[in-house]
Fold these 3 entries.
Entry 1:
Amino acid sequence: MLDPLHQFEIHPIIKLSLGGLDFSFTNASAWMFAITLLACLFLHLGSRNKKLIPGAMQSLCESLFSFVSKLVGEQAGSEGVQFVPYIFSLFIFILLANLIGLLPYSFTITSHLAVTFTLAMLVFIGITVVGAAKHGVKFFKIFLPSGVPAFIAPLLIPVEIVSYLSKPISLSIRLFANMVAGHIVLKIIASAAVVCAVNSLVPLIVFPVGINVLLTTFELFVACLQAYVFTILSCIYLNDVLHMH
């Protein structure tokens, strides 16, 4: 059986070390760079020659932007619209990373917790700064909902603090776990097809191959869904700090 975890291994392409710290340019770095360039190219091609009757690329870009813009408006209100460019960039990056990770011989960067946690921390730090800038000292009232009896405060405040600090953890693990689990299952079933071929059980190959085709279709759905979930939760967290309870 082929090692299902081999696909997640990180290998240095250009080894760099500074002050005892490893700054090597790895296969993960290369794919992140490629996905960023692809996202920029996709948006550039979709917006460079805007027409009244849009072509396929312009229509796709506008549809995705309208989708995210509407999502932010619904979840974070009119005050959240100013953050649409960042939320949209986040959505496009995660969506492309998830989809490209399904291609043969590619690398799924969102299958690494370091990547998903960094994305989640950017959202967490961003919403915290926005909330503190808008509400000042009153921002800390987010840990004590209005109307709560004073005697419950010593118990409720620590719970609210833990809940708030756990947001980037849950946000990152959800994306990471879904990507890892799906790719492992695909690799295991693909390995079963290889075993059948090696042991001259060619007629049986149709079963793991058929299952993998169905699972790949399902993983395409999961890739899009997880980008959506990450985005909508980011919008909900933004709404929480803009419109505190």
Entry 2:
Amino acid sequence: MSIKAVLFDLDGTLLPMDYDGFLKLYFGNLAKRLAGYGYDPDELIKNIWTGTKAMVMNDGSCMNETKFWDVFTEIYGVNVLQDKVLFDDFYREGFVKAKEACGFDPMAKETVALVKEMGFQVALATNPIFPMIATRQRMEWAGLKREDFALCTTYENIGVSKPNPAYYTEIAKRLGVEPEECLVVGNDVSEDMVAAKIGMKVFLLTDCLLNKNNEDISEYPQGGFRELQEFIKLL
């Protein structure tokens, strides 16, 4: 079955990233900003991780946004919903500081353009644990924009996450293609290569490789953007 769609991961794939450095800047600046509104920084970070875990475990019965704020409501009480605007303000004004932990590779935009020129649908399959406002910024840091993609997953529009294979099944469904007609490009072995389990083709981008379980990666087509472009031309 021929490929009809290419699903690109964002963080560490289209957007080069020091992941640990990114998290430090992201959480540090968010906690600092919200400390002025009564949030204990350490508790806030811990609770954000709790909400993130809930999104990762979400079964699709609600959007990830709902799942996250349900967790926050359980922890802080229903009044926390009034502070949602504070988080939105941070993403608009303070999130950009995390860009310091990110790089830039012009071949990312070049590769997305190549894929579109070849007639494939293109989706941004970034783990949907961020709101669109934060995802748009990270796209821009990579030299891309929302209009470059037929579909972009964020916590507002989907209720399953990586590494659940159902996440990839849902993307294929929304694109109107079969899983076997998709290629997934990503840098995280456990989160991105799992798509192979439902019949999707995969390519492991190794520039910012994440392999936290030290898995054998020899079975996966892999390399940098140049190797990826050559791989796609042979599809």
Entry 3:
Amino acid sequence: MPTKVDQDACTGCGACAEACAVDAITVDDVAKVDAGLCTDCGACFDACPVEAISKAD
């Protein structure tokens, strides 16, 4: 299941990108997940201090 970022909640802190072992997340103003690289490991969910990252429905 793809990972989604709540663009309104994301603060662009970069904690998710640091936690991502496969470098699937980039951060400019907000985080963006490359679905082709993402392994759905969940590390970014745990790392996000504002809970802006979740599994897409």
